[in-house]
UniProtKB/TrEMBL annotation:
Name used for this protein in its record: M-phase phosphoprotein 6
Residues spanning the membrane: none
Region listing for Disordered, in residue ranges: 1-49, 93-138
Residue stretches of biased makeup (Basic and acidic residues): 20-39, 107-117
Compositionally biased tracts (Basic residues): 129-138
Listed Polar residues bias regions: 1-12
Ranges annotated as biased composition (Low complexity): 40-49
GO biological process: maturation of 5.8S rRNA
Gene: MPHOSPH6
Cross-referenced Pfam families: MPP6 (PF10175)
Length: 138
């Protein structure tokens, strides 16, 4: 009797009550073969790329590392006072980045939403009070 890698004979696996085990065994075997095949393909692709890079020279560098992404801009952004909390976080991140570089003397002064506004609070209150007076007088 022939035995497979699961330790069960071929005749035993053909019995009706062992059909599920046989299917599981076959599926596992197919998955293992597919994994080996994909691994061989990926290793052959890597070899081809390495050979090509060696022939062409070092024009590009491919790595699996994310170290190059560490100095990216802050992910959430807001401008002109649309989201003051996010702008504050952006300022903090920017100041930390400048402190890390040693450019403390070039740091900008902290601006609030009031400093960035096009119209001052006094001007806005004057305009609104005039509008209210016009509405009530008509």
């Amino acid at each position: 009797m022939k035995r497979n890698s699961s330790g069960l004979s071929k005749n035993l696996l053909q019995m009706k009550f062992m059909q599920r085990s046989k299917e599981n065994y076959e599926n596992a075997e197919k998955a293992e073969q597919q994994r080996r095949h994909e691994q061989q393909q990926s290793s052959s692709r890597q070899q081809e790329l390495l050979e090509l890079c060696q022939k062409e020279g070092d024009k590009f560098l491919a790595t699996n590392s994310f170290i190059f992404c560490e100095n990216l801009e802050y992910g959430r952004m807001s401008f002109k006072g649309m989201n003051p909390e996010i702008e504050q976080l952006m300022r903090i991140k920017h100041s930390q980045h400048e402190n890390d570089d040693g450019n403390e003397s070039t740091m900008e002064t902290k601006k609030t939403a009031k400093d960035e506004a096009d119209v001052s609070d006094d001007e806005m209150t004057n305009v609104l009070t005039r509008r209210k007076k016009k509405r009530h007088s008509s």
